[in-house]
Design brief:
2,3-Dihydroxybiphenyl 1,2-Dioxygenase, domain 1; nine-stranded mixed beta sheet; 3 helices; binds cobalt (II) ion; single chain; 151 residues; alpha+beta
């Protein structure tokens, strides 16, 4: 397996609206998409695009804001420990999600659940932070058309 680009940093928040205001007013972000619900993942999501080195917004690494969708959200535990929110996961792209899964399995890394379609509409899976130097890690197949899968 070859490591691809850092697609996004997942940031948990108790309030997407407050986080949007923060990224717009404090961080000067301009590439902020409309939030959307992802009930099957238990989260509400909002993509904040950063520019690449040429300054083009939408070509850099994204911030993926995630807010609990309901009381069963998988990020409720994280927010209980981090009430103000915080950095939740890192997401790296790979060319072939099946090959990547086999690669990590072969290294004895715990994969959290099945490969599924993530917030960007591409196949993803998560790896246990205790096997990944403390970092909850999302592996995403590189989007085929739009480099970011944002809408
Ligand atoms: Co993510």
């Amino acid at each position: 397996m070859k490591l691809g680009r850092l697609n996004h940093i997942g940031v948990a928040t108790p309030s997407i609206e407050e986080s949007i205001a923060y990224y717009r007013e404090t961080m000067g972000a301009v590439g902020i998409a409309d939030p959307f619900d992802l009930p099957e993942q238990g989260v509400r999501v909002c993509f904040v695009d950063t520019p690449d080195s040429s300054g083009e917004v939408g070509k850099g690494t994204q911030i993926e804001l995630i807010e609990p969708f309901d009381e069963n959200s998988p990020i409720n535990g994280f927010l209980a420990k981090n009430p103000a929110g915080g950095q939740h996961h890192l997401c790296y792209e790979v060319e072939d999600i099946g090959a990547a899964r086999e690669w990590f399995e072969g290294k004895g890394k715990r994969i959290l659940g099945p490969t599924r379609i993530g917030a960007h509409g591409t196949p993803i899976f998560f790896l246990h932070p205790k096997d990944m130097m403390g970092q909850l890690t999302e592996i995403m197949e590189t989007p085929r058309k739009n480099a970011h899968g944002s809408n």
